[in-house]
Every structure is written in C-alpha cells, then in structure tokens.
Amino acid sequence: MAEEAKVVLLGSGFSMFGMRAKIALAEKGIKYEYIEEDLTNKSPLLQEMNPIHKKIPVLIHHGRPICESLIIVEYIDMVWHSNSPLLPSDPYHKAQARFWADFVDNKVYHASRRVWISKGDEQEVAKKDFLESLKQLEEFLGDKPYFGGDIFGFVDVALIPFYCWFYAYETFGNFKVEKVCPKLISWAKRCMQRESVSETLADEKEIKGTSATSTRPRLFPPKFIKVSPKGKVPVIKFHE
Ligand SMILES: N[C@@H](CCC(=O)N[C@@H](CS)C(=O)NCC(=O)O)C(=O)O
Description:
By secondary structure, this protein is an alpha/beta fold. It has 2 domains: 7-79, 3-Layer(aba) Sandwich (Glutaredoxin), CATH 3.40.30.10; 91-214, Glutathione S-transferase Yfyf (Class Pi), Chain A, domain 2. 50% of the residues lie in helices and 9% in strands. The radius of gyration is 17 Å and the shape is globular. The two termini are 26 Å apart. The structure holds glutathione. The site of glutathione has 11 residues, from α3. Residues 5-84 form the GST N-terminal domain.
C-alpha cells in the first residue's frame, strides 16, 4: 500500500465513537493501521489531525484527516461504496438515518453520560431521559431486524457501541434496559452476531470495572488505555 493511500485510525480505549469507525471499516473489509491515543497525553499527531476538537476518532486517508465519528462512517461508506452499503441511496431514507444517528449523539449519549457521572435525584432524571430516548429508538426500530430494514446500516453502527456500556449504566443506575426495551436488546444481540460488531465492542465488565471507584467521571484513565485482546486490528502502536 502506498504510504499516502494508507488508512489510519486514531482511537482510544472504550470510546463508543472510536468503535463506530472500527465497525464501519470492518464491514467494508478495509485494512488499516490503528493508533491508540492516550487522551490524558494527546499525541502531536492527534493535535495536528484534529486541531479543532483534539478528539478521537480521526480517520486519516491519503494523509488527510476526517474527524467526527458519524462523518467518518459516512466517509467510509462513500469511499468504499461498492460493498456493504451503510446509508440508503434513497434521499428520504438517508435523511431519516442521519436524523436518528444524530438523535443517538444528542439524546442517548448525553443522557447516558449523566447516568454515569451523577447521583441521587440528578441520576434519576438522567435515567428517565436515557430510557425514554432508547424507547423512542425502539419505536422507530419496530419489528425490523435493523434500523434501516433488513440490512445492517448507519443507525445500527451509530448505536451499537453503546450496548457494551449498558452494563455499567445499569449497575450505577440500578435499572435494566431489557425491562423497558426488550426489542432493542434483541436487536443488539442480533448485531452482536456480526463479526464487525463482536470483534469491536469492548467487554462490558471491563468497562464497568473502569468506573468502580472514584475514577468514574474519568472515562479513560491511563491504566485502562490498552487494546482489547478481542480487537483484531492490523497494526497497533502505542504512544509513549
Ligand atoms: N462527537 C465526537 C465525539 C468524540 C469524543 O468525544 N471523543 C472523546 C473520546 S470518547 C475524546 O476524544 N475526548 C478527548 C477530550 O475530550 O479531550 C465524535 O462523534 O467523534
């Protein structure tokens, strides 16, 4: 592979956003170099490639950076469009998929983070918001196998990384997603049958373990910066 044509992904630990990019690359069968970032000591490469937000994931293709996980997934889908399409070609269905992926970021993620970092009454409100957002997604899913219909696609990629975080949210918030959203859990188990997903998602107990103590608000403490033994990525580098 010519140096400039190389595909490189900057990711970190248990990031659900990084997992989205990994799943999309795996769905397309793209070989890439994975670089694990220490977010407590960001590399010059990350700062150069994402000078605005300095966040992972960043996809580097032909030496050029693409930032923001949903934009990365869409880029991967456009560049490698001949196999496993993730976004529908129909403009209305495409707009709908983008709407729900945005909903995952703006509703599910924010509520889940509040479940994670808060306590008491604040956590009760966060739990309610989190479950309500999942319920709305479950209603959109309906009886379809995947959010877009019969084919695993964009909204599935956007949401499924959160599944490995459910156990931690449930433990800290003392609730069960399955009780409220059984169809959503069946959908998640269906997604887990795909190698792209099962090989990417982190171990739920390991995720919960990162937060058992006062480190909870720090999602990615240095000692947990490692590559999951399940992660089958072509090249792994660690920054010193
Ligand atoms: N909206 C961004 C969110 C990315 C994000 O929050 N990344 C976190 C890791 S999960 C990060 O890099 N945090 C470092 C920081 O905030 O300094 C996306 O979808 O890519």
